[in-house]
Specification:
By secondary structure, this protein is mostly helical. It has helices at about 1-30, 35-40, 45-55, 60-75, 85-120, 125-140, 145-160, 180-210, 215-220, 225-240, 240-250, 250-265, 270-280, 280-310, and strands at about 80, 85.
């Protein structure tokens, strides 16, 4: 097990190194460049040359990359001229807000999706299974920005139950009151509904696979009730695919958070990335992409470790 974790860590570092190279090159291939985006369309060629020389942007691309990588290894994420602040400070302020949004949506999704998936698996090919499947397909096919706009139209414009924008202050210092919960409700629901649709389908399939296993038939033949069989023999095995899905679904959830934060004007890392992309703020774009890559690789590794904890039959040589 230890050897497997070490190998996966080495693989993760290699993958992360490759991701940074690809993103760094792609960003610097965008027409215009950082100098033109920051100085504006009226900047002269002499102004652009001076700007690039001052920031080292006139050096060869490999030299720029290794300079950036060396700064990252020393904890320097760069400076954002778009926001006039160090990138580390921007991320330190916005990342916790995104983690609150994603954590709350994940929690809601798991609380709802697991019982729904079990119900669909037990009642497969019945009316309630077909009904829930139809809703799952409906929400899973909706892009986050479209679902967010629909929820704003219904709950903010028509019913006027919830505010159309998310809380703008520091969530760490805000009091846990009804106004904060109301402001977070629509962004959390937007992300949770799509995640519920995805998770419940996997849970349904896993439950259906577990129900036909020999050990489940044996448990039933011994006189265990349906609830006892589900709790002792079906639930634990059916959760294994969901653990893997939790790790590999992080990129999609981050992408959904980017769109959701933009729609609800939620001051998290997704909105930061969106604003940085509009102004060609390379240091911020590189830093946020790096953090998402690290979170994705860490989630995948964590899912593999949880695999072995939940299912003792799995052994890594």
């Amino acid at each position: 097990m230890v050897g497997y974790i070490v190998r996966r860590l080495i693989q993760s570092v290699i993958v992360l190194f490759g991701v940074t190279i690809v993103v760094f090159v792609l960003l610097h291939l965008i027409p215009g460049g950082e100098a033109r985006a920051l100085l504006g369309p009226k900047a002269t060629q002499a102004d652009i040359i001076a700007f690039n020389r001052e920031l080292g942007l006139d050096k060869p691309l490999p030299v720029q990359y290794f300079t950036w990588l060396n700064n990252i290894l020393h904890g320097n994420l760069g400076y954002s001229y778009r926001f006039n602040a160090p990138v580390a400070q921007l991320i330190g302020t916005d990342l916790p807000k995104t983690l609150v949004l994603m954590g709350a949506s994940y929690l809601v999704a798991l609380i709802v999706a697991i019982p729904l998936g079990i119900l669909q698996g037990v009642r497969h090919n019945k009316f309630d299974d077909y009904t829930l499947t139809a809703f799952s397909f409906l929400f899973y096919s909706m892009p986050p920005y479209w679902l967010g706009l629909v929820l704003i139209l219904i709950f903010s414009v028509q019913l006027q139950w919830l505010p159309p924008t998310a809380p703008q202050g520091n969530l760490g210092q805000a009091s846990f009151d009804s106004q904060l919960v109301a402001g977070l409700a629509l962004p959390v629901i937007t992300l949770a509904l799509i995640t519920i649709a995805q998770f419940s389908r996997y849970q349904r399939s896993a439950v259906m696979d577990s129900l036909v296993q020999d050990h489940v038939r044996t448990a039933r033949s011994k006189g265990l009730t349906s609830m006892q069989t589900l709790g002792r023999h079906v639930l634990r095995n059916s959760l294994i695919p969901l653990l893997t899905l939790l790790g590999v679904s992080l990129p999609a959830l981050f992408a959904g958070a980017l769109l959701t934060e933009s729609i609800f004007n939620y001051p998290g890392m997704g909105l930061l990335f969106w604003q940085a992309a509009q102004s060609s703020d390379y240091p911020t774009l590189l830093a946020t992409t790096l953090i998402v890559s690290v979170a994705t690789l860490a989630g995948s590794l964590l899912a593999d470790i949880m695999y072995a904890i939940v299912d003792p039959r799995i052994r890594y040589s």
